[in-house]
């Protein structure tokens, strides 16, 4: 295939990710690989700075706190939040969404209310709301979809907005790779004073994110999907709303004063960070954001689109596979079914060729049920992947067909 020229020095960038020499890694939607400077920041912290934060007055404690809070400032800057009070470190998107679901419901959701979601969601942005709905005797309400699975924006105004208390939708689908029309949800919801949570697990670190320009009320994302360490994530929340929510978990660091029978709580963001946080994870995430910003988030996004275009052109003539999303403009995620080979067999065969893809329902069973398929295979690309890796994938797919057809 003709090689497309890329503006990113991909071959230099790949040297930052030693693990990429071991296989073709096409499972980036599950977790991204980590550059050496993020890996080193973790061992450096343990070698030189390890101490708890916000409590010890010794030098190590002060240093650890300064680094942790510096990471928070980097996150603020990365998503253009107004203030560091709006940045809460969590263990990932799932944790961030559970925090909002639990605290928001405690304060604002009552019997008869509803929560607006979509059938495209990852389980992390569906199950927490199902739990809340059953606890509060509320219901889930679903965004109407067109045949191509985009939001039916004309039907949005007909939703029962008087019962909807919050909308929670994903930015980029982890199965289809399409960027959802969150702008239309946000503007309709705000027209009815309904706050909106955006699940940005597949968009943060992939496309530019500016929470002020998006005008979202909450934004949840995972650090480990954007070159940061595992077990890291962020919840952005509009300060005015976060102030109104009760604490999600109780423990150290989230209190102001504690008596035998009651407590008063710390200011934001500590109110939502009970116990010893993942300090080294947050610091590693700050490094990852530095790394991505140095390369340039727009260049990263363009690179993913270039690769997606290459992947689309390299595979669209294969009659034996059917893509779940047929649009040319997907953001690095391609899920498909093969006419004969089960996704798991295909993933296992490709693994024998040192190509890592995902097979299953990708934590999106309602979407798979809607499409009447139990599972699919998924290729998910990131900026460090190459056109020649896509060529290898195509060759291995053809080999798999020969292998399984006999
Ligand atoms: N939301 C989406 C769209 C995802 O793709 C994922 C993970 O794949 C999640 C939420 C959950 O992320 P985590 O497991 O990091 O909490």
Please tag this protein with its features:
alpha/beta, single chain, 2 domains, 4-stranded antiparallel beta sheet, Aspartate Aminotransferase, domain 1, binds pyridoxal-5'-phosphate, disordered N terminus, 7-stranded mixed beta sheet, about 400 residues, globular, Aspartate Aminotransferase, domain 2
What does this entry look like structurally?
It is a single chain. By secondary structure, the protein is an alpha/beta fold. The chain folds into two domains: 10-34 and 297-405, Aspartate Aminotransferase, domain 1 (Alpha-Beta Complex); 38-294, Aspartate Aminotransferase, domain 2 (3-Layer(aba) Sandwich), CATH 3.40.640. It contains 14 helices and 15 strands. α5 (127-136) links the parallel β3 and β4 (139-142). α11 (297-315) runs parallel beside α14. Residues 29-30, 92-94, 122, 124-125, 170, 174, 199, 201-202, 222 line the site of pyridoxal-5'-phosphate (PLP).
Q: Could you outline the blueprint of secondary structure elements for this entry?
A:
Elements: H1 10-14, E1 24-25, H2 36-48, H3 59-79, E2 87-90, H4 93-108, E3 114-117, H5 127-136, E4 139-142, H6 153-156, E5 164-170, H7 182-191, E6 196-199, H8 211-214, E7 218-222, E8 233-237, H9 239-244, E9 255-258, E10 263-265, H10 279-295, H11 297-315, E11 321-323, E12 333-338, H12 343-352, E13 355-356, E14 358-360, H13 365-370, E15 376-380, H14 387-405
Parallel strand pairs: 1-13, 3-4, 3-5, 5-6, 6-7
Antiparallel strand pairs: 2-8, 7-8, 9-10, 11-12, 12-15, 14-15
Helix pairs in contact: 2-10, 3-10, 4-5, 11-14
Pyridoxal-5'-phosphate binds near residues 29, 125 and 199.
């Amino acid at each position: 295939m003709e090689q497309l020229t890329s503006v990113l020095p991909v071959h230099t960038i790949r040297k930052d990710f030693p693990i990429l020499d071991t296989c073709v890694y096409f499972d980036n939607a599950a977790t991204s690989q980590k550059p050496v400077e993020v890996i080193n920041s973790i061992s450096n912290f343990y070698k030189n700075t390890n101490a708890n934060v916000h409590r010890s007055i010794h030098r190590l404690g002060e240093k650890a706190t300064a680094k942790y809070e510096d990471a928070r400032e980097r996150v603020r800057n990365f998503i253009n939040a107004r203030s560091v009070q709006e940045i809460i470190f969590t263990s990932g998107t799932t944790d961030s969404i559970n925090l909002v679901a639990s605290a928001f419901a405690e304060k604002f959701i009552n019997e008869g209310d509803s929560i607006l979601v979509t059938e495209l969601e990852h389980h992390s942005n569906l199950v927490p709301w199902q739990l809340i709905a059953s606890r509060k005797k509320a219901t889930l309400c679903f965004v109407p979809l067109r045949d191509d699975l985009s939001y039916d924006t004309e039907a949005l105004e007909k939703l029962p907005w008087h019962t909807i208390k919050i909308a929670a939708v994903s930015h980029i689908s982890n199965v289809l790779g399409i960027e959802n029309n969150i702008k239309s949800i946000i503007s309709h919801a705000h027209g009815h004073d309904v706050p909106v949570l955006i699940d940005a697990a597949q968009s943060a670190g992939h496309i530019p994110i500016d929470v002020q320009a998006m005008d979202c009320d909450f934004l949840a994302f995972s650090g480990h999907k954007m070159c940061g360490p595992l077990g890291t994530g962020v919840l952005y929340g509009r300060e005015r709303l976060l102030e109104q929510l009760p604490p999600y978990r109780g423990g150290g660091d989230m209190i102001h004063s504690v008596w035998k029978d009651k407590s008063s709580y710390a200011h934001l963001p500590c109110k939502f960070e009970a116990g010893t946080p993942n300090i080294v994870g947050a610091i590693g995430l700050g490094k990852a954001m530095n790394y991505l910003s140095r390369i340039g988030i727009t260049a990263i996004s363009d690179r993913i689109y270039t690769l997606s275009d290459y992947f689309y052109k390299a595979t669209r003539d294969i009659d034996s596979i059917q893509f779940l999303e047929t649009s040319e403009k997907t953001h690095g995620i391609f899920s498909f079914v093969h006419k004969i080979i089960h996704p798991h067999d295909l993933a296992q065969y490709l693994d024998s060729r040192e190509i890592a893809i995902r097979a299953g329902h990708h934590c999106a069973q309602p979407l798979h049920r809607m499409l009447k398929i139990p599972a699919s295979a998924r290729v998910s690309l990131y900026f460090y992947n190459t056109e020649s890796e896509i060529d290898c994938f195509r060759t291995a797919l053809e080999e798999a067909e020969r292998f399984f057809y006999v």
